[in-house]
Write a structure and sequence with these properties.
about 20% strand, 13 helices, Lysozyme-like, 4 domains, alpha+beta, single chain, Lysozyme, about 20% helix, SH3 type barrels, 6-stranded mixed beta sheet
Length: about 625
């Protein structure tokens, strides 16, 4: 492969810009449009430091999707359009500090600019990142080639100091496929697809240390993943029931079908979260933890077992929980989630969905905020992570199930998907400046002056008056630019000019449920437990009460079912840490069946015998 000196490489990179970036649209005067400034800044920075322009574009896309976030850092200290890092050493556990956590100051020094300017000025941020890439290339003894394939190891170093990290592979995948989008501040950027024939890619290293067994982790083969088991131990040596942090099981072979994935945020750092899950007194766990800085995935609990993550036993029994390093609404730190965290999480969920037959939609890929309180006493205190800043639209894109586009005002009785454009959807929220959010406010009438639903507030944690991106509802009414949905037992109105905030749900086979004939209203349940008769053959297992929430579905209202078929009520009994109590680790399955529905902000259950519109319940042999 021919190597070129730096000056020649810079000239070659400039000559290749038009081919790599694609022709920019021109105005009538022949000048690029005003929103092409960021595109030109990529070109200039790449040429100045002899970095292939497409490579810089692809790297930045994988860091931030070309967003500058106004210079505000991510949850783990990524700054500016290229995600240069600045992490307080005091916040890093002893022995875990690495150069990759401090690239902002290093890169700023290379171009002689203050770090604060490099964090906030896209042009200087790009120059600094290009300078850092050029330095890494020189330090590795490689020339500043115009061939992006010669920069693979340099890109890998930029993304982290662990060669297992898939960052470089993702950058080169973006080079091959191309990308195009308009940023939140109106900058249109395009990277044309281009072949990268032979990247200088090293062989994957062997499994790491003995404290992390990669072979035990259920992950995609190309994901950086290890296994660090959560605690399974007693908190009181004299009490065999005092164990944490999860329940031994044999899902799905024991009858506990895995139907959901529940996404959480940690409200803390990666290392602190590992410590929490390693303490049985925490009484909490998740199956996976995703690190923000580089998208590294750690499995904590086998998917066979029941992690304690959702605050609702029915959902714990039937889901996989994934924690994400980040914060739902921090008041003392930034809020945006890193692109590598989104990418790794989505890759993991695609893998799990294929393995367990989980539908890739927002009735099965849930936030913790979608999980209902199991009983009314728990409803108000349910969690609301990953929060209003989680970009569900982008996440669904990564899952391969993008939201449908707007199609004008919806028809009454149709099903719609909440789908505001994340970058431009900026409802007022107490305690934060104007920034993208993932929900629409719901009101009692078709007017911006109407009260928020349920006496709601503008607080991010107040989930009573919000409909979140990807959620599906039945249209109850339309008035001009306002649409009403059936939500929480009433009409809930949101601004939907031209159908831009909600799109038709065109998927075939959707089931819509209404109260059965003759019912003025029907009860709503927060969990799907078996009826009392199901326990007759299990004398050692205490009967769990089937108690509805205080919510109802009145006659005339309609709600989408999450599944076309109802699920049987069930309860998994696991008493002692060793499974040696009478009838320990036994699944009790009832004859009563339930439909999971999207009831309000959260899911809930309707008993199949109470509804019209579903399929006939499956036959039950009785007890």
């Amino acid at each position: 492969m021919i190597r070129m000196p730096r000056a020649a490489a810079a000239a070659a990179a400039t000559a290749l810009v038009a081919a790599v970036l694609g022709a920019a649209p021109a105005t009538a005067t022949g000048r690029p449009p005003a929103d092409g400034r960021l595109q030109r800044q990529f070109t200039d920075a790449a040429a100045e430091f002899g970095v292939p322009a497409g490579l810089l574009l692809a790297l930045s896309y994988q860091q931030t999707r070309w967003e500058s976030h106004g210079g505000a850092p991510s949850t783990t200290g990524n700054h500016g359009v290229t995600g240069l890092t600045r992490v307080d050493p005091a916040a890093v556990p002893s022995g875990a500090d690495r150069p990759r956590l401090h690239t902002l100051d290093t890169a700023a020094a290379l171009i002689g600019r203050p770090a604060e300017q490099v964090a906030t000025d896209p042009a200087q941020n790009l120059r600094a990142a290009a300078a850092l890439l050029a330095r890494y290339q020189r330090e590795a003894g490689r020339a500043a080639s115009a061939d992006p394939g010669d920069w693979y190891r340099t890109v890998a170093r930029f993304g982290g100091d662990d060669e297992r990290n898939p960052f470089a592979d993702r950058v080169f995948a973006t080079l091959r496929t191309g990308a195009e989008r308009t940023t939140a501040d109106g900058q249109h950027v395009r990277l044309a697809a281009a072949p990268v024939p032979h990247p200088d890619r090293p062989a994957r290293p062997a499994p790491r240390s003995a404290d992390a067994d990669d072979a035990d982790a259920d992950c995609p083969a190309d994901l950086d993943c290890d296994f660090r088991p959560a605690a399974y131990a007693l908190t009181d040596p004299g009490d065999p029931t005092s164990y944490g942090n999860y329940t031994k099981a044999n899902r799905p072979d024991d009858g506990q079908r895995i139907q959901y994935v529940v996404l959480h945020d940690t409200e803390g750092g990666y290392d602190g979260s590992l410590a929490t899950f390693g303490n049985p007194k925490s009484q909490a766990s998740a199956h996976y933890l995703v690190r923000s800085s580089d998208g590294h995935v750690t499995q904590l609990v086998s998917n066979r077992d029941v992690a304690w993550h959702a605050g609702n036993k029915t959902f714990n029994m039937h889901s996989i929980g994934i924690e994400h390093e980040g914060y739902a609404f921090p008041k003392d730190r930034p809020t945006w989630y890193s692109e590598q965290l989104y990418q790794s999480s989505a890759a993991l969920v695609r893998h799990l969905a294929a393995r367990y037959g989980i539908p890739l939609d927002r009735e099965h890929v849930l936030g913790h905020d979608d999980v209902p309180g199991p009983v009314q006493a728990n409803a108000a205190g349910m969690h609301w992570d990953p929060g209003t800043f989680w970009d569900w639209a982008h996440y669904l894109d990564l899952l391969g199930v993008p939201l449908p586009g707007p199609a004008g005002p919806p028809a009454v009785g149709s099903t719609v998907v909440i789908s505001p454009a994340f970058d431009t959807n900026r409802p007022a929220v107490n305690g934060t400046s104007d920034r993208p959010e993932n929900f629409v406010y719901l009101r009692t009438g078709p007017s911006p002056d109407a009260p928020l639903l349920n006496d709601g507030t503008l607080d991010a944690a107040d989930w009573r008056d919000k409909a979140v991106t990807g959620a599906r509802y039945v249209v109850a009414d339309v008035s001009g630019d306002w649409t009403a949905i059936w939500y929480d037992g009433r009409k809930a109105w949101f601004a939907n000019p031209g159908g831009t905030a909600a799109a038709p749900d065109a998927r075939p086979g959707r089931t819509v449920l209404t109260p059965g004939p003759g019912s003025a209203s029907i009860p709503v349940y927060g969990r799907a437990y078996p009826e009392a008769a199901a326990y007759r053959g299990h004398p050692s297992i205490p009967v769990q009460q089937v108690v509805p929430l205080s919510a109802t579905v009145p006659a005339g209202q309609a709600y989408p079912a999450a599944d076309a078929e109802p699920v049987r009520g069930d309860f998994y009994y696991a008493r002692n840490i060793d499974g040696d109590a009478p009838e320990d680790r036994t699944l009790v399955v009832g004859c009563d069946t339930y439909y999971p529905i999207r009831y309000n902000h959260r899911l809930a259950y309707l008993r199949s015998t109470d509804v019209r519109g579903g399929s006939a319940p499956p036959a039950c042999p009785g007890h």
